[in-house]
Amino acid sequence: MKNTVTTLQEQKNNGEKISMITCYDYSSAKIMEEAGVNTILVGDSLGNVMLGYEDTLQVTMEDMIHHCAAVSRAVKDTFVVCDMPFMSYQADVSDAVRNAGRLVQEGRANMVKLEGGVEVCPQIEAIVKASIPVCAHIGLTPQSINAFGGYKVQGRTEAAAKKLIEDAFAVEKAGASMVVLEGVPAKLAKMVTEKLSIPTIGIGAGKDTDGQVLVMQDMLGMFKDFVPKFVKQFANMGDVMKEAFESYIKEVQDGSFPGEEHTYDIDEEIIEKLY
Ligand code: KIV
């Protein structure tokens, strides 16, 4: 089944959970589509897990387009959401529309995601007017870590919870078709999910959002620099990969790889003529 903004909305309306995983490359995206994921997020978390930056602030439009295009080439039915990187939309509304357009035209994204609530509503309205679906991202927004003073759960005080609800209503009114709730208390995320008509996708927001998203390297146990409380490791690919690398190194060293079955042949007579 092809996933679209319409089918994702229907999933919310029918109480069917939406699955989303981050992805940044062709081979992994193919496996995710085979597994039947509804949506892939080409997140700016690629700055951390693919490029080794300490935060997402250095990620560029070129990085996002490059990785989004690779993912888009791999999938047919999966809905591709691409993050707008830091400073590609905050300063100016027309910049935001042009950059969102590049993610669609060059990255072949189906939807763009940007961080923020009330303060980015003019950008959301303008991008939606350009016929580009928008996913908002509120709560713990990693592009604001310097303003937050670190990766901290948001919405815990009465004022902060009210601000989160206000942001959620504002982005829906501005035309967002989906909203990511990151790092917020589960009961608050449940309340927001019940109040909004558009689907909510949670990460560190409990089980009552309309869908869930995890970073691929986190859920596969491949990225261990920092493992947040909300991460469940569904496999330990880090160890599996390490064992495979160790076996390869050993076989290269002891000469057992490559074997006959990995080797191309040539007529012995030709070889003799060459000596
Ligand atoms: O960049 C990303 O991976 C994200 C998710 C954590 C929601 O924005």
Layout of secondary structure:
Layout: H1 5-13, E1 18-22, H2 26-35, E2 39-42, H3 46-49, H4 61-74, E3 79-83, H5 93-105, E4 111-115, H6 121-129, E5 134-139, H7 145-148, H8 158-174, E6 178-182, H9 186-195, E7 200-203, E8 211-214, H10 216-219, H11 237-254, H12 268-274
Parallel strand pairs: 1-2, 1-8, 2-3, 3-4, 4-5, 5-6, 6-7, 7-8
Bound molecules: 3-methyl-2-oxobutanoic acid (KIV).
For the largest beta-sheet, the strand count, sense and barrel status come to: 8 strands, parallel, barrel
Coarse morphology: elongated
Specify the number of helices: 12
Residue stretches low in confidence (pLDDT < 50, at least 5 long) are none
Cα separation of the termini: 60 Å
The H-and-E topology, N to C, reads as: HEHEHHEHEHEHHEHEEHHH
Which small compounds were modeled alongside the protein?
3-methyl-2-oxobutanoic acid
Helix content: 40-55%
Mean pLDDT: 97
Please report the total strand number as a whole number.
8
Could you explain how this protein is built, in words?
By secondary structure, the protein is of the alpha/beta class. The chain contains twelve helices and eight strands. Helix 9 links the parallel strand 6 and strand 7 (200-203). Helix 2 crosses helix 4 (61-74). It is elongated. The protein starts with a helix and ends with a helix. 41% of the residues are buried. The mean pLDDT is 97. It binds 3-methyl-2-oxobutanoic acid. 3-methyl-2-oxobutanoic acid binds at residues 22, 41, 43-45, 83, 137, 180, 182, 203, 213, 215.
